[in-house]
């Protein structure tokens, strides 16, 4: 299991660079206190232009300990003070979730990711887990990573997110071309569409 926190930020016009700077600084502070933390920007799709600040942990005990530590770090306190006196964006979250399949993003080898958010009753999760090994097997020759996440604390507890990771935009384009003509993958996508309803999608690039 992997615990995840997500903070989504919509920049105020004219303050994008200031917001990006604060989020990267915040990610560095969080990483000093045990988080695997990084920042992405949504390039295409739902929330285009937004920034996301992620942190992953091996369990929720580690997440709670890290949050307690970085919240009292003088550098994080300074960032929060800057946010209060000179707002640069509108934040949603933190939202708390978990990976139910796959591993978190580590390092910068796979900086491009695509999220596909499904509306799905929790009772269908076992069906998702049944087909994921076949998805992973089909994507592995393309060099594409896949993971699945769900909400623990947030606004939508019937949202299940499939996460695809790519090494570059070129890798994404080449992989999508292959996916669209791969009969096994198309069958798996059809099965996923029967388990849940695709509602939103986005492409993100790691900063």
SSE blueprint:
Blueprint: E1 2-11, H1 16-32, E2 36-45, E3 51-57, H2 60-71, H3 74-85, E4 89-101, E5 112-119, H4 125-139, E6 145-153, E7 159-166, H5 169-181, H6 183-195, E8 197-206
Antiparallel strand pairs: 1-3, 1-4, 2-3, 2-8, 4-6, 5-7, 5-8, 6-7
Helix pairs in contact: 4-6
How would you explain this protein's 3D organization?
This protein has six helices and eight strands. Helix 4 (125-139) runs antiparallel to helix 6. The protein folds into two domains: 2-96, Alpha-Beta Plaits (2-Layer Sandwich), CATH 3.30.70.100; 98-206, Alpha-Beta Plaits (2-Layer Sandwich). The radius of gyration is 17 Å and the shape is globular. The chain is an alpha+beta fold. The model has no long low-confidence stretch (mean pLDDT 96).
| Helix content class | 25-40%
CATH topology of the largest domain: Alpha-Beta Plaits
**In terms of per-residue confidence, which ranges show pLDDT below 50 for 5 or more consecutive residues?**
none
Class from secondary-structure proportions: alpha+beta
The CATH class of the largest domain is identified as Alpha Beta
Report mean pLDDT, rounded to a whole number: 96
- Subunit organisation of the chains: single chain
- Give the tally of β-strands: 8
Give a short account of the largest sheet: 8 strands, antiparallel, barrel
Terminal Cα span? 25 Å
- SSE series: EHEEHHEEHEEHHE
Tell me what the CATH architecture of the largest domain is: 2-Layer Sandwich
CA-based gyration radius? 17 Å
Number of helices: 6
The tally of structural domains comes to 2
Strand percent estimate: 35-45%
């Amino acid at each position: 299991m992997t615990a995840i926190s997500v903070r989504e930020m919509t920049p105020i016009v004219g303050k994008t660079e200031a917001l990006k700077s604060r989020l990267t600084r915040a990610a560095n502070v969080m990483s000093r206190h045990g988080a695997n933390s990084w920042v992405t920007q949504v390039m295409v799709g739902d929330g285009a232009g937004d920034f996301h600040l992620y942190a992953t942990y091996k369990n929720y005990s580690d997440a709670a300990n890290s949050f307690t530590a970085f919240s009292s770090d003088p550098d994080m306190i300074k960032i929060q003070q800057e946010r209060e006196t000179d707002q640069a964006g509108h934040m949603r979250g933190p939202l708390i979730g978990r990976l139910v399949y796959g591993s978190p993003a580590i390092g910068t080898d796979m900086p491009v990711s695509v999220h596909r958010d499904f509306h799905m009753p929790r009772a269908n999760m076992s069906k998702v887990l049944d087909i994921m090994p076949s998805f992973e097997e089909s994507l592995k020759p393309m060099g594409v990573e896949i993971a699945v996440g769900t909400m623990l604390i947030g606004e939508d507890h019937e949202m299940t997110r499939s996460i695809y990771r790519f090494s570059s935009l070129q890798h994404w384009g080449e992989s999508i071309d292959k996916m669209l003509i791969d009969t096994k993958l198309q069958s798996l996508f059809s099965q996923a569409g029967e388990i849940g309803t695709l509602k939103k999608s986005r492409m993100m690039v790691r900063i």
